[in-house]
Amino acid sequence: MNRFNLTVVKRFWAIAKLYWLGNEKKGANALLVLLGVLLLANTQVKVFLNTIQGELISALSARDSARFWQGVVIALGGIIISGFLNSGYGYLRETIGIYWRRWLTDRFLNQYFSDRAFYELSNFNQEIDNPDQRIAENVASFCQQSIQFFVNIIESIFVVIAFSFILWSISINLVLALLIYSILAYSITIGFYGRKLTQLHLNQLRKEADFRFGLVRIRENAESIAFYNGTSQEANKIKLLFNEVFNNFKRLILWSELYLNIFKYPFGNLTLILPAVILGNQILIGKLEVGKVTEAMGAFGSVAFSVNLIMYQFEIFTKFAASIDRLYIFYEYLKQPRKETANKKIDIVKDNRLAVENLTLETPNYQKTLFKNLSVELQPGQGLLIMGESGSGKTSLLRALAGLWNSGTGVIFRPELEEMLFLPQRPYMILGTLRDQLIYPNAKVDVSDEELRQILHRVNLSNLAERFGGFDVEKDWSYVLSLGEQQRLAFARILVTKPKYAILDEATSALDVNNEENLYRLLLETGTTFVSVGHRPNLKKFHQLIISVSLPVSSNL
Ligand SMILES: Nc1ncnc2c1ncn2[C@@H]1O[C@H](COP(=O)(O)OP(=O)(O)OP(=O)(O)O)[C@@H](O)[C@H]1O
Q1: Cα 237 to middle of ligand 1, angstroms
Q2: I need a surface site. Which of 5, 222, 300, 543 has the fewest CB within 10 A?
Q3: What is the pTM assigned to this prediction?
Q4: How many Å lie between the centroid of ligand 1 and the Cα of residue 402?
């Protein structure tokens, strides 16, 4: 096996063993054994049918009618049994695949959401493109294709063993020819075409994902694009992405269809004449019955097909190898502990208060120092207002409080994140019902519809539930609500969740002054300790502490 193959196999096993040696191994392996048994039975039927085929030809050439019809009846029995076996193992194969996929998807999702890997991936990491495609598509093809390959390999082994005996019994030359044929086929396909095709498939997967992601972004930002009248810009960009898909695909089919098939088909079709060439002489001198050539051709073809499975399914295999590669790199990335920033790292100390001491904050890659030596402490129930020019680092300070950014020095004292509710600058509307929106980020909260209705009334969204048909109706809320309504809805989460601490990043910026002041009055009533970022002077009266961050003191570039 060359190095290319070894890497693929090693990478494959690193992921596959998680399931097959993991906590579900008993059930999974039992199904696999059952699959093996069905395959074995299927091979036996195949061998049997092949022998009967030779027998029918021999009976015809001997003009023996009784022998012929007896053969037909037996063959029909075998054909019916093969139908049952094939459908049984096909069903079982797909069942194993989908169970494995469910398990592996779950595993990837757990890691994707743990330690906020998804945030790091979408903000700081450029190596792992399109994680969504890796979880949705690559996991699927990994599981389903591997089962398919497993079936093919096991079936091949059975076929090779069973039919080799038959070939051996007819002529040893057949077995030798088969051996040489197989070695040649294997080394040419893997050695010559393997690496190139895998690389092309890898590129194709990436480019297809980029193209799709481009289209999803347009859907998500449809209104802004329409307002800007940016359609021609967007169309050009998407067309460029598709062009990449097109160009790579052209290279791919050049290799997979033209160059590979020029070798694959003639080489495959050789099996049609080779047995006749090898046995021809013996038939001509009357040492063998004609039916033996038919039998040998069937057996030779089956073994050659099985041994050269990799050649016949080479395209699928290289595509599969590309999926393994993408999944393995993703798996390795998720597995490692989330990177700690090298030397200058802000300390977070869990405490029953919110305070920062000598905090110097930098952008994640240390390009810019946002502010230096900031110290401030909040007493329970107090509010802190952070003001300052755009780009001065107000949101970044909140990112540091949440632990999303940690480049810099100093200490942050804060409670567990579960006790803090963050309302980001862009109100985030999850997919789901109105109730889901209100109780977010909790999945379940013990509040009645009546209480929710009252809360909506207090944030000045009185008829929202009625407008959309109740609390259980699913909508794309970011489309059907105005920005100000979304901000009020997000604010209502504070009244539902009643967190000890709330962090508001310009959470009322889209509201008129009356609505904004109403929300802050409600916030004061709850006794929550809070930090707000805002620009309007009218906010000052709701906060005991006010700090102003100024534009970056230095650039580290
Ligand atoms: N992921 C990032 N990597 C590097 N720099 C970033 C990143 N995100 C933001 N910045 C930079 O950090 C600086 C501070 O950004 P921040 O969002 O904290 O500003 P802000 O004061 O909240 O601004 P605004 O009032 O406009 O919302 C900006 O110069 C911004 O360009």
Answers
A1: 26
A2: 222
A3: 0.73
A4: 15
